[in-house]
Amino acid sequence: TGIRALDEAYEFRKGEIVTIQAGTGVGKTRVCNGMVYNSLLMGKNVLYLTLEQKSARVWAMQQARHALQLYGYKADITDKSILKRNFKVEHTGYVDTALDDLIANESYGRIRLESLNLQANELTSKLINVWENGFHFDVVVIDYLGLLITRGSTRYEALTDVVNDIKSDVKNFKGEGFLAVILNQLTKEAEQKI
User: Which of its termini does the chain have fewer beta carbons within 10 Å around, N or C?
Assistant: First the structure.
């Protein structure tokens, strides 16, 4: 995860679900992207279903994190500066090399980013389609669960069905299983109850 206390206390692995829940703007996606980055460095393939962020933003987070890993702290190399290409000119080599290394380094896992509108009842078929088209993932990120489109039954029932499907899939999917990382934004009412 990149959070030392959490990493020392617990090892995440295939067949498990990690849920990151919090209110708006507190860093759920950033924590998740730290987990994704560490997974890539361990040679794990990540399917990132981004239902909120643009794929380019998620990729820029990975690139900025990798530049930090390779070259140390550079204050102006952030995902935002990469997207806007407004970092210092002398840091261009850091940014470009970080990108090249993430793409070409054979010891790293691969990431597949998909920005989409997804029906809740289509999640498992989406996973099957991605797998059967050759991207064999170890980690699946759903960012975020509450943006799955539901129709027919109540929203609560539809999302409960999705979570139950994921519980089954993480252990048995294609005989491999996967680690699921699910981001969920809490409502203001839920935040107040905590």
Answer: C
